[in-house]
Amino acid sequence: MNILVISAHPDDEVLGMGATIKKLSKKNNIIHLCVVSEGATAQYKNKKMIKVRRDACVKCGKILGISHFDFLDFPDMKLDSVSHLEINRELEKIIHKFKPEIVYTTPFNDLNKDHQKVHESTLVVTRPSSSSVKSVMCYEIPGPVRVPFHPTIYENIELYFSYKIKAFNEYKSEVMKFPHPRSTKSLENFAVHRGIESGLKMAEAFQLIKSISN
């Protein structure tokens, strides 16, 4: 099965659903990652960090079992200043090329405008009139939120969580100290919390946006 993961920045994919990606790849699904922004220039003055973060993303993805990568290189933390149509067109190209049956995207509940913009564009490019996508879900990214994330799907990741941490550690510039949400201990606590909610030891949480059954 072809599965597309869309992220706003390099590292959204592993923070939101790294263990699930590994689980899906182990089941012989073909995983494609599309990163919408370059994910560096808003944080770092040195433009070399764009390549550093891209290289980290590829190394991370190889650990998780991602087969294909697309980097759209829109400006970091400025997606709300980019034409909605422009982002949609680029994502549509990916959809038409890869023909995924399932698409995972960024959440809409947090404070990050880039996440919100990518979420909105995903809804447009996966509409039935323009794609054959059967299922769309958004993953959860640890950090400050506008409104709580209300999961409808929990993925058991007990056997795959170690891969998530190993992959995340490839983003050396992004790994923070506890209690920052982007610390390895926080990610573990987060997984345990979602696990407790769902009767599992560890889980990643998702919201189902749509599912079409034939």
Commentary on this structure:
Helices cover about 40% and strands about 20% of the residues. With about 210 residues, the chain is of the alpha/beta class. Strand 1 (about 1-5), helix 1 (about 10-25) and strand 2 form a beta-alpha-beta unit. The model has no long low-confidence stretch (mean pLDDT about 95).
Layout of strands and helices, then pairs:
Elements: E1 2-7, H1 12-26, E2 30-37, H2 48-64, E3 66-74, H3 84-98, E4 102-105, H4 113-125, E5 135-139, E6 153-156, H5 161-168, H6 184-198, E7 203-211
Parallel strand pairs: 1-2, 1-4, 2-3, 4-5
Antiparallel strand pairs: 5-7, 6-7
Helix pairs in contact: 1-2, 1-5, 2-5, 3-4
Essential attributes:
single chain; 214 residues; alpha/beta; 7-stranded mixed β-sheet; 6 helices; 7 strands
